[in-house]
Automatic annotation (TrEMBL):
Keywords: DNA-binding, Transcription, Transcription regulation
Name by which UniProt lists this protein: Putative LysR family transcriptional regulator
Tree of life domain: Bacteria
Residue ranges constituting the HTH lysR-type domain according to the UniProt record: 1-53
A GO MF term: DNA binding
Gene3D superfamilies named in the record: Periplasmic binding protein-like II (3.40.190.10), Winged helix-like DNA-binding domain superfamily/Winged helix DNA-binding domain (1.10.10.10)
Transmembrane segments: none
Length: 292
């Protein structure tokens, strides 16, 4: 299951084998044996990348829980000698969906480490890392803002999203819902709309992912947000073909200081093991979300 998780995370056997300190043939054998045990194909090849099948995604959900419980139990009874304190900064979307579980497992495995979490907008989290207000920051950045010492987590595509049953706008300005001035998504959205010559009006600002989602689902406006944020009652904006393709965003871990302490290295390892599933089936408007 650990081999399957890493192959899905990295998209191939080579890097997974390196992380496991195994040969590629050994990892391939483990995957074949796992497929034989469950009786289903778990991976499919798309070009040069391996993607999970439907059964692979279903098994991955169990694998995450099994591996987390296994690793926590081993660490608990082995006893962690690590001590120290860490302040983790994270954007709202990551803090509300994944940090609680990660923090709980980490505290259990490393009782000698004091972990605090501080949530905020993307630009705020970046500023905290710059000033040392947090030790580690998990945040989305544009491609040209990724630093050589950033630790990559995953990539998600930005899209203009609307409610499936949203009313046609006619000649009215596009009602735009944004994450506020402390998130760079709004700047990207306004630039794309301006370049396309599309009139718009900012009708709501919310630093909360849940707030933006709710406003879009209610038909209050459209928003530029992660494809992975879409809910089943949302789809791509009907006017998307009139604007240039939005960029992808790269989620990274950024350290306030290097080198990382042993405690920070352990937390980074936990964070890098928490990447969400591949959104490769989120291509049709209104497609159901694949939940972590």
């Amino acid at each position: 299951m650990r081999a399957l998780k890493l192959v899905i995370e990295t998209g191939g056997v080579t890097e997974a084998a390196e992380r496991l300190s195994l040969t590629q043939s050994a990892v391939s054998w483990k995957l074949r044996r796992l497929e034989g045990r469950v009786g289903h194909s778990l991976l499919k090849r798309e070009g040069r990348v391996l993607r999970p099948t439907r059964h692979g995604r279903e098994l991955l959900e169990f694998a995450d829980r099994i591996l987390s419980a296994h690793d926590a139990a081993v660490q608990r009874f082995r006893g962690s000698a690590l001590t120290g304190s860490i302040c983790l900064g994270a954007t709202d979307d990551f803090a509300t969906t994944r940090v609680a579980g990660i923090a709980g497992r980490f505290r259990w495995a490393h009782p000698g480490i004091r972990l605090q979490v501080k949530a905020g907008s993307s630009l705020s989290v970046a500023a905290w890392a710059e000033t040392g207000e947090v030790d580690l920051a998990v945040m989305p950045v544009e491609a040209n803002q990724v630093r050589h010492d950033d630790l990559p987590l995953w990539t998600d595509q930005l899209e203009f999203i609307q409610a499936i049953d949203a009313e046609p706008l006619g000649d009215q300005p596009v009602p735009l819902v944004t994450f506020g001035e402390h998130c760079f998504y709004g700047r990207i959205a306004s630039t794309l709309l301006d370049e396309a010559g599309i009139a718009y009006e900012e009708v709501l600002q919310s630093a909360s992912t849940a707030g933006v989602r709710a406003a879009v689902s209610a038909g209050f406006g459209i928003s530029l947000m992660n494809r992975g944020f879409m809910t089943p009652d949302q789809c791509l904006w009907s006017g998307s073909e009139r604007v240039a393709t939005p960029p992808a965003v790269h989620y990274v871990v950024r350290a306030a200081r290097l080198p990382l302490t042993a405690a920070e290295q352990s937390l980074v390892a936990e964070l890098r093991g928490s990447v969400p599933p591949v959104w490769d089936e989120m291509t049709e408007p209104g497609a159901a979300m694949i939940e972590p």
